[in-house]
Amino acid sequence: MIQQLSENEITLLIIKYLKEFKQDQFQQIIEELQPYDIARLYKNLPEKHHYKFLTFLEPKQIALLIQQLDRKTQVDILHKLGSKQSSKIMDFMANDELADLLNEISTDETEEFLASMQAEESQAVKNLMRYPPDTAGGIMTNRYVWIRTYYTVQEAIDKLKSFAEIAENIYYLYVLDEHKKLVGVVSYRDLLLANLDDKIEDIMFSRVISVPVDTDQEEVARIIERYDFIAVPVVDKENHMVGIITVDDIIDVVIEEANEDIEKLSASGKAIDFNTGSLTASFRRLPWLILLLFLGLISGSIISTFQETLERVVALAFFMPMIAGMTGNTGTQSLAVVVRGLVTDNIDRKAIIRLIFRELRVGLIIGSVCGALIAAAAYIWQRNMMLGVVVGGSLFMTLIIGTLAGTVIPLLLYRFGIDPAVASGPLITTLNDIFSLSVYFGTATLFISQLM
Fold first, then answer.
1. DSSP state of 196
2. Which residue, 147, 193, 280, 327, is most buried by CB atoms nearer than 10 A?
3. Which helix (H) or strand (E) holds 51?
């Protein structure tokens, strides 16, 4: 029945059951929905129904619901339910998600929640909260299945069945020695293909790809992409296994990093979304815009310096926006290529040199084609060969400069340990305006007598 109803119809039906206290019918609908759909349903409900909606859910259902919501709504739900009820829900939450959530609330509230949880779960969350949020330790979960080398396949399967309900991932079983050091890994497929009395040490892979606990989350994402893993183990300095990172966590990381890069490329600074207030959004954008404002004054001073050249050959003004715009465009294109490459590829000295020369050749090709086209257009329009040479030649040089600027600036920032996405599109465009106008008017001034 639920499949035939629209989202709006389901919402109205849920409201009806809440008002009539029909918890059984309410649960029949909830049990057919995915956690994401339950979260959408909760957000679509009027505020006055939120608390009753939560009380109609089982603790495990609330835990799944919370993990689909933004931090502000998560904290709001915890406050609605109170510490006693919230602590029961936290026992069902993924420990990594819970650690991130508790880092968003006050220390006193965190301690109150942790004190009310089961001791084992509370300690596991405390351990995860010690790690920086953007590292392997900060995004890992400690809910994984581990076995010993002397287990038989049958014993491994029995343990997997016992922990399948609480484990984050059951596709891999990790083999630990008596000191909890990682010595091997066995996939669920390996167990299915082996005989039940085979020893784990005979079928396991001893060359395990793992990541140190302090590895940056972007590097973890690259490793999972490189090896097509569903999960990757996390180890400490002594190779003790402390957790795993699953591919669904990495998808969140990739989206988060992509959003951050887009924000920086657009010079919007910190996160700005549909819910950000106008005053907050303004102050987050202003620092970059003020910097670009003063850089823009340099462009204006360049035009003022060559005012006499403009007065003597007015046709130069017609091509000025095109010269500056094209240079900024090609610089932004190169910037996007470099930033994407720095995220997805391993960059060494040879790769950097190869990239710079590649972009130089690209600039030469683009500059030659666009320069020739605009030179022809300028000649046809004014019947002045020298005007075509000046405009076309200037565009040729500025496109090369723009391409190299869009390549070299993010590489320099990367070299000095600064996020290359900080080299935002507007910054590259403004700098290229300065370069292009200087070249354009400098060339025109050099040939002013022929232009006349």
1. T
2. 327
3. helix 50-55
Are the C-beta atoms of 370 and 326 separated by less than 8 Å? Answer: yes
Co-location of 150 and 131 in the same domain: no
Residue 104: DSSP 8-state: T
The pair of structure tokens assigned to 116 is: 């009310």
Give 349: exposed, middle or buried? Use CB within 10 Å, 0-12, 13-18, 19+: exposed
177: helix, strand or coil: coil
Q: Which residues of the chain have pLDDT under 50?
A: 423
pLDDT score for 288 = 61
Torsion over CA: 302, 304, 306, 310 (sign): positive
CATH number at residue 69: 1.25.60.10
The DSSP result for 239-281, as a single string, is: -BEEEEEEHHHHHHHHHHHHHHHHHHHTT--S---TTS-HHHH
**pTM for the full predicted model:** 0.61
For β-strands 172-176 and 182-187, DSSP reports them as antiparallel
Residues 332 and 445 both lie in one domain = yes
| β-sheet bridge partners, residue 176 | 182
Report the pLDDT value the prediction gives residue 413, as an integer from 0 to 100. 74
Residue where one domain finishes, among candidates 101, 136, 171 = 136
Asked if residue 217 lies in contact with residue 135, where contact means CB atoms within 8 angstroms, the answer is: yes
Looking at residue 279, its pLDDT comes to 75
446 and 300 in a single domain? The answer is: yes
What is the helix (H) or strand (E) element at residue 293, kind and residue range?
Answer: helix 278-305
Range of the domain at 61: 2-136
Task: Report the pLDDT value the prediction gives residue 366, as an integer from 0 to 100.
Answer: 92
The mean predicted confidence, pLDDT, of the chain is 84
For residue 82, the model assigns a pLDDT of 84
Q: Is residue 266 part of a domain?
A: no
CB-based contact 434:327 (threshold 8 Å): no
Please give the helix or strand (H or E) that residue 187 lies within, else none. strand 182-187
Residues 444 and 306 both lie in one domain: yes
CATH number for position 405: 1.10.357.20
Two tokens, residue 398? 């500025």
Looking at 207, 222, 256, the residue that finishes a domain is: 256
Q: Do residue 308 and residue 368 come from a single domain?
A: yes
Q: What confidence score (pLDDT) does residue 430 get?
A: 78
Structural domain contains residue 159: yes
In a domain, 270, yes or no: no
Q: How far apart are CA 407 and CA 336, in angstroms?
A: 9
